[in-house]
Inverse folding.
């Protein structure tokens, strides 16, 4: 094991499945990722995008058609699952129903042939880490959903993995518990200092927890980067659309200036030709501000109160329906009201793809 | 009407008939048998209503030379029956376990068809099926012809009328009893748990021993009990495939009731079988205790 090697390197991984109807589905299409240090990386994407397949090829439950999986410099592509130095927290938890909590958590140690004393102290330590101290002798059926989740985590961590894989482990929990677990997972990851690869289709979860997020679709990584980068500067329309709400406005750029359909323009040098301006709903506001701004006149066609702000849908003649979120300042326009929303020219992001 | 009384009434309506049926057709005959086993056999069949413990004495060893003699052959036959039934359970288990595993991994449509195939022999008369086995196992049967054809043996091997033939026959007859409970527990097996086990470092064999086997234990125990009980008391298979050489307790009981017309002795033998079965059920209860399922 060389010290400089990455915890995980996936090189040009491809995998396709045969469907029962006789067709083929490409789950992974030439995917390459490199995990640095003790990173919390999330694989995010809609169902069927290949994220779970990618995770299962890392854990060894699926084999690759081509490509390599390298863990700390060792090529484990052909290793069976039980030999790989990674462990998984399953979506269904997959706890052994016929064993106590303690035996579940100590399973990897039992398999490895550790003595009872070591196992007991390790199990105690792991249960303490996940906040279930003293529950060794409970049976799985006596646990709540959240507790089972913690047992599954403790069981995977007790095996001392070099990399922990988590397959949508929080999806069965209710919202409050899920948020609590998100913070705890992050804390545990930082405490242990090992890499976590987390699979989810929940974008909030991905943005909240991750050091980096990889957005997957159609078996390919669309973009990988820090949550802020992904949200503010999506590389393509898929990421822009998949992560949060966005207004996608066609622009045409030439000679350092981008033009909107209604003649408004702003300086932009990164593009020649047609592209798409992405405006997040929170970037639109009622006041033009000090500097120059883009103006979007229209009529409010829908209004929703979400608690922290108002979601407005603005019917604009030139740009169609625009989404905006406005703070509740007591003067939020009502449905049917004509209003002009503004966006500052600062930090505008243009994607070099054209809206279909 | 109070809701409580309504519930009681509806329970009574639902369970009344089956309970009456079981009482009349199952429990009453059983009591009669139990009582008969302690009565004196009549000189020309039937019973005399005087207490008599030598029906059991003949089997278990307290002798009385005047009326009935102790003969160890009864105990021998009883023990042989236990042995043959146990071996039948074992062979059924060995055949059914991998089959059930294989079928549980099929696509739903194929699965239904495969289970239908397993239960298919039920559709043909037992006697016909057993005589088919006579044709296979007899000295000039298919098995011997095949073995001699490939040169494995020069003389026909005596398969028929041996323990082997009886075990083969009973395994064949009772496989569905083993297969179905086994299949039910194997089908419920959580594939994720098997993956989790290998994820945590277990080889296939370790996963089998630590996860699959304990998780399917209720099915194994249930199937074993369901196979053992009818195998122990069976008399058709040993009489067709065992002939006079392999007599099981079932044949003995049949003889006592139908030929010897010694009902009290036959009842005593039957009570022995029942005692063995009850002991087994007790064992089963202990084995699967706390798993929330008996069979």
């Amino acid at each position: 094991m060389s010290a400089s090697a990455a915890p995980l390197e996936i090189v040009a991984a491809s995998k396709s499945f045969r469907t029962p109807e006789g067709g083929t589905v490409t789950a992974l299409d030439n995917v390459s990722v490199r995990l640095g240090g003790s990173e919390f990386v999330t694989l995010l994407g809609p169902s069927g995008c290949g994220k779970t397949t990618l995770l299962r090829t890392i854990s060894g439950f699926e084999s690759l058609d081509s490509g390599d999986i390298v863990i700390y410099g060792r090529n484990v592509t052909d290793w069976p699952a039980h030999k790989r130095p990674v462990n998984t927290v399953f979506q269904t938890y997959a706890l052994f129903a016929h064993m106590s909590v303690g035996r579940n958590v100590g399973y990897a140690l039992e398999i490895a042939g550790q003595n009872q004393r070591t196992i007991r102290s390790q199990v105690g330590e792991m249960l303490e880490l996940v906040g279930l101290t003293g529950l060794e002798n409970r049976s799985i059926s006596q646990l709540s959903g959240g507790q089972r989740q913690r047992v599954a985590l403790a069981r995977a961590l007790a095996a001392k993995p070099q990399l922990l894989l988590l397959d949508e482990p929080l999806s069965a929990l209710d919202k409050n518990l899920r948020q609590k677990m998100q913070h705890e997972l992050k804390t545990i990851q930082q405490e242990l200092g090992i890499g976590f690869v987390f699979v989810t289709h929940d974008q909030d979860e991905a943005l909240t927890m991750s050091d980096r997020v990889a957005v997957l679709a159609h078996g390919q990584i669309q973009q990988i980067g820090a949550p802020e980068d992904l949200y503010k500067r999506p590389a393509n329309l898929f990421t822009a659309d998949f992560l949060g709400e966005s207004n996608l406005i066609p622009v045409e750029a030439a000679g350092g200036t981008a033009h909107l359909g209604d003649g408004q323009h702003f300086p932009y040098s990164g593009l020649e030709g047609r592209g798409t301006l992405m405006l997040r709903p929170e970037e639109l506001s009622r006041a033009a501000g000090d500097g120059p701004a883009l103006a979007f006149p229209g009529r409010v066609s829908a209004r929703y109160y979400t608690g922290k702000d108002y979601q407005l849908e603005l019917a604009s003649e030139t740009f169609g329906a625009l989404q905006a979120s406005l703070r509740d300042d007591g003067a939020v326009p009502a449905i049917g009201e004509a209003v002009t929303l503004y966006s500052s020219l600062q930090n505008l992001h243009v994607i070099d793809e054209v809206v279909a | 009407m109070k809701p409580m009384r309504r519930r009681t009434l509806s329970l009574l309506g639902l369970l009344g008939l089956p309970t009456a049926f079981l009482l009349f057709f199952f429990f009453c005959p059983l009591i009669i048998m139990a009582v008969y086993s302690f009565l004196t056999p009549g000189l020309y069949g039937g019973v005399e209503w005087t207490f008599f413990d030598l029906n059991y004495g003949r089997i278990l060893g307290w002798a009385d030379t005047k009326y009935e003699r102790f003969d160890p052959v009864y105990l021998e036959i009883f023990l042989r029956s236990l042995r043959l039934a146990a071996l039948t359970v074992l062979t059924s288990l060995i055949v059914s376990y991998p089959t059930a595993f294989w079928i549980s991994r099929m696509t739903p449509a194929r699965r239904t068809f495969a289970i239908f195939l397993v239960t298919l022999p039920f559709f043909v008369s037992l006697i016909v099926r057993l005589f088919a086995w006579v044709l296979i196992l007899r000295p000039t049967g298919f098995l011997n012809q095949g073995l001699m054809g490939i040169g494995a043996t020069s003389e026909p091997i005596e398969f028929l009328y041996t323990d082997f033939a009886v075990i083969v026959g009973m395994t064949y007859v009772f496989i569905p009893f083993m297969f179905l409970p086994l299949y039910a527990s194997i089908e419920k097996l959580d594939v994720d748990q098997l993956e989790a086990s290998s994820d945590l470092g277990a080889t296939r064999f370790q996963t089998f021993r630590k996860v699959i086997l304990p998780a399917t234990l209720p099915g194994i125990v249930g199937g074993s009990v369901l196979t053992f009980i009818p195998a122990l008391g069976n008399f058709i298979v040993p009489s067709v495939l065992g002939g006079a050489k392999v007599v099981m307790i079932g044949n003995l009981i049949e003889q006592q009731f139908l030929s010897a017309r010694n009902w009290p002795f036959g009842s005593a033998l039957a009570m022995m079988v029942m005692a063995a079965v009850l002991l087994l059920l007790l064992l089963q209860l202990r084995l699967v205790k706390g798993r929330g399922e008996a069979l």
Summary: The longest helix of chain A spans residues 175-192. The interface with chain B takes residues 20, 59-61, 80-83, 86-88, 90, 92, 94-99, 107-108, 110-112, 155-156, 159 of chain A (CB under 8 Å). The longest strand of chain A covers residues 293-305.
